[in-house]
Structures are given as structure tokens and as C-alpha cells.
Design brief:
The chain has 2 domains: 87 residues, Hypothetical Protein Yqey, Chain: A, domain1 (Orthogonal Bundle); 53 residues, Orthogonal Bundle (Arc Repressor Mutant, subunit A), CATH 1.10.10. Helix content is 75%, strand content 0%. The protein has 7 helices and no strands. Helix 1 packs antiparallel against helix 2 and helix 2 packs across helix 3.
């Protein structure tokens, strides 16, 4: 069963259970997946990795919206956005621990030969496929910056 199939199955289960939060979260995510599939010159079916990337972007949108709502004093809406992000999080692979991330970054820094923060792009280029869906981009970038600044 593909990730998209699992999400569609869970959507049906959420309808039957009248789980409004899960239902709304999955509908938005599946709409984003469908939009990605039909964008471009020719429609296509996304691979699981591509679906993970779309779900990751949707989670990021929810977190950014929650932050904006919280800044505006709308804690009820911020809580809702965070709850939706949490539902979607369950469809991503297990997140990297801090130690795992440090090791991946260390290996990529050595492999790229980067020695200063200006060379961060080289390291990120190597890391992106290795951490896709398993760590938030800002977290990865922060660790790369820390290691390049310390080295």
C-alpha cells in the first residue's frame, strides 16, 4: 500500500468515525498531493518519497500559520494548526534524533570538504536526499551552520 493509499484509507476511516480534525487534515494534504500530481505538462502519480515531501511542506505551512496566529493572539486557531500538523506528522518517516543529525552533518561536511559557513550550500546539497522527510530544513541548516562555524 502506498503512502497516498494509506492516507485515503485513513480519510475514509476518519469520515466513518466522524473525526473532524483528522478528516480536515487529510483532506488538505491529499488535495496538495493531487495538485502536485496534476501540475506540470502531464499528470503523473507521485512516488512515496514525493508524497512525503508534499506532506512535509504541508506540516511546515501549518506550523508557520500557527506561529502567525499565536502572534496575533488567536491561540485557538494556532492550536488547531498545530493539531493538524501533528496528524500529518504521523505520515512521515521517524524523525532523526539530534545525535543522528549531528553524525549525518559531520559525514557530509567531511565528504564535501567544506570548512567555512560560506560553503554551507555544498553540504546542504549532499544532506537533503539523506534527511528528506526525517528532519526539518531549518534544523538541518542550523546544525550545518554550527559545525561549519565551529570547525
Amino acid at each position: 500500500m502506498t503512502l497516498k493509499d494509506r492516507m485515503q484509507h485513513d480519510l475514509t476511516d476518519a469520515m466513518k468515525a466522524r473525526d473532524e480534525l483528522r478528516l480536515a487534515s487529510l483532506r488538505m494534504a491529499l488535495t496538495a498531493v493531487t495538485n502536485e500530481e496534476v501540475s506540470g505538462k502531464q499528470a503523473r502519480v507521485l512516488s512515496d518519497d514525493e508524497v512525503v515531501a508534499v506532506v512535509g511542506r504541508e506540516i511546515k505551512k501549518r506550523r508557520e500559520a500557527a506561529h502567525a496566529f499565536a502572534d496575533a493572539g488567536r491561540t485557538d486557531r494556532a492550536d488547531r494548526e498545530l493539531a493538524e500538523a501533528e496528524v500529518l506528522q504521523s505520515y512521515l518517516p521517524a524523525q532523526l534524533t539530534d545525535d543522528e543529525l549531528v553524525e549525518l552533518v559531520r559525514a557530509a561536511v567531511q565528504e564535501s570538504g567544506a570548512a567555512e559557513p560560506r560553503q554551507m550550500g555544498q553540504v546542504m546539497k549532499l544532506l537533503q536526499p539523506r534527511v528528506a522527510g526525517r528532519a526539518e530544513g531549518s534544523r538541518v541548516a542550523g546544525e550545518v551552520k554550527r559545525q561549519l562555524s565551529a570547525g
